[in-house]
Amino acid sequence: MVAIATSFSAAAAVAVARRSSPAHLQLVARRRLPFCTAASSSTVPPAAAAGFGWADALRVASEFGVGDESDLSGYFQKVDICNRGMGNKGEFVEFMVEDQVVGYIHKGFTEHLRDFHDVFTIVSGSNGKNSVEHVTLHSSLRTPEDRTIAIGDVIKGLGELIPGIRNELYPVTSSYGMPVYFSLERAAAPYFGIKAYGVHMNGYIEKHGEKSLWIGKRSDVKQTYPGMLDHLVAGGLPYGISCKENIIKECEEEAGIPRSMSTNATSVGAISYMDINGFRYKRDVLFCYDLRLPVDFVPNNEDGEVDSFRLIPVPHAANIIRRTDFFKPNCNLVIIDFLFRHGYINPDCNGYLKLLTSLRSGDCS
């Protein structure tokens, strides 16, 4: 395995050297502008969202008008935010491994992969225009381990073109539960259009017949969406761990919830969305969990990723979603799903079925 890693590292180094030539740098400069614009707009939260505090959120939360809860327009807006750019799907080509589609890559981004010809095979169409038909892996990469090492070296070689490296691997499959073809750096997932899975948990209490949600406010130094509101517990699903074990792990790290409590988290379904922004194609599926907590439980963050928590009545949390952009975008969808399942959104609301189905706008497989 060490020999394999060394050979691919050397190949990546050669490719980087070729890409340092003046001619190639000019080509990259021409390509980079739209790429970097897309990256910055998708990784940096809106300025308005980054500048609020709990006082602002709680003020909006308490402004509750009679009958106002039947207005679903604010929820539809949040669904739309997670499902942008569907008209641009034609700009992407299939990424195939072992004759299975595992992702989608922007035609412009494929130009950055051409130098890594010992890792990627870019197949052109037969229409005489040299257009890209699909991307696959070099035939010499036969095992998941070889592919993971080789593509990992490519991502290192691409440098700033893929910002926010997490050093966390996501499994690459055609759909959930299917064979894993290789593992990919989490930050690179949208650039290869792979399906990414995560777990999100609504932690709530019930007192005197009224339910309240524990809501977290992300640390101001978080790499993504700093300072925004979030679930009590949420996280991506990395390679080699089950959804339930991941929830238990995240419960302890993010909220100090002991295993004796977190094992009671109940799987309640999934939401999905597809978002295209520049060269990034997010195809996410989030497995949803509910956990009813003791009324005297107070969460405590253990990993430094959460600034603070607040216990907010469910109708007030719904107000924040409908009226602001304070929540991390995909959290909105999971809480809207909670509102359906717990009866806060009912069939008498105009647009009920349309909103319900929109929570699974992505490929939920």
Structure described in brief:
The protein is an alpha+beta fold. 37% of the residues lie in helices and 25% in strands. It folds into 2 domains: 2-42 and 88-192, 2-Layer Sandwich (Transcription Regulator spoIIAA); 48-85 and 195-358, Nucleoside Triphosphate Pyrophosphohydrolase (Alpha-Beta Complex), CATH 3.90.79.
Helix and strand content put the structural class at alpha+beta
Oligomerization category of the chains in this entry: single chain
The residue ranges in which pLDDT falls below 50 over 5 or more consecutive positions are 1-49
According to CATH, the fold-level topology of the largest domain is Nucleoside Triphosphate Pyrophosphohydrolase
Mean pLDDT rating: 86
Strand tally: 13
Number of helices: 13
**Corresponding CATH architecture of the largest domain:** Alpha-Beta Complex
Helix content: 25-40%
Order of helices and strands: HHHHHEEHEEHEEHEEEEHHEEEHHH
Q: Which geometry do the CA atoms define?
A: globular
Q: N- to C-terminal separation?
A: 33 Å
Strand content: 25-35%
CATH superfamily of the largest domain: Nucleoside Triphosphate Pyrophosphohydrolase
What is the CATH class name of the largest domain? Answer: Alpha Beta
Any idea what the radius of gyration is? 22 Å
Largest sheet: 7 strands, mixed
What is the domain total for the residues?
Answer: 2
